[in-house]
Amino acid sequence: MKKKTSRAKQAEITKNKIYNCGVKLIRKHGFDNVTVEEIAKQAGVSVGTYYYYFESKFELFSEIYKRADDYFLKEVADKFESKDCKGKILEFFDKYAEYNCLDGIDMIKKLYTSDNKMFITKGRAMQRILEKIIDEGQRNGEIINSESPAEITRMLFIVARGVVYNWCLNDGAIDLKDEMRKIIAAMLNGLCNSKIDM
Hints:
By secondary structure, the chain is mainly alpha-helical. The chain is 69% helix and 0% strand.
């Protein structure tokens, strides 16, 4: 692995500082109510420095999802304890619930708006990981073949986002991981060739 120069390390520190300040402001005020100027000021950098690292406010917003995808690639993909497809899907959504909890209820409430199209952006790493699990499950005869892996992935994410949205509506008063597991398990009973325990 190539060692980073001190300049590269400093650039990474600056980018992370801008990102963290942007996330903090978005968490507090919502994406539409925050300006690039405010983010730059909070980070203690010039607006020009902000634009050196992020082309726009939306690019910083997209970084939230890129980092989530990176987390799933590094910490979730190919690290499942379960050997069967159903168990892997449940583990995947356990991690999805945990990741939302890490972001915190205030941040998630700001992200869960109908204007946020990042949730339906196709080809994201999270989707590819789940599609691969489902494809494998279909080839092994564990998952029904009446829908494609992409379509089953889409449906599961709709359900998972609904669970997270309900968590937001309840101000985090419900156990997101337990609720996610219970509802995804119920849905999997309709998609799997054998029933699973909830």
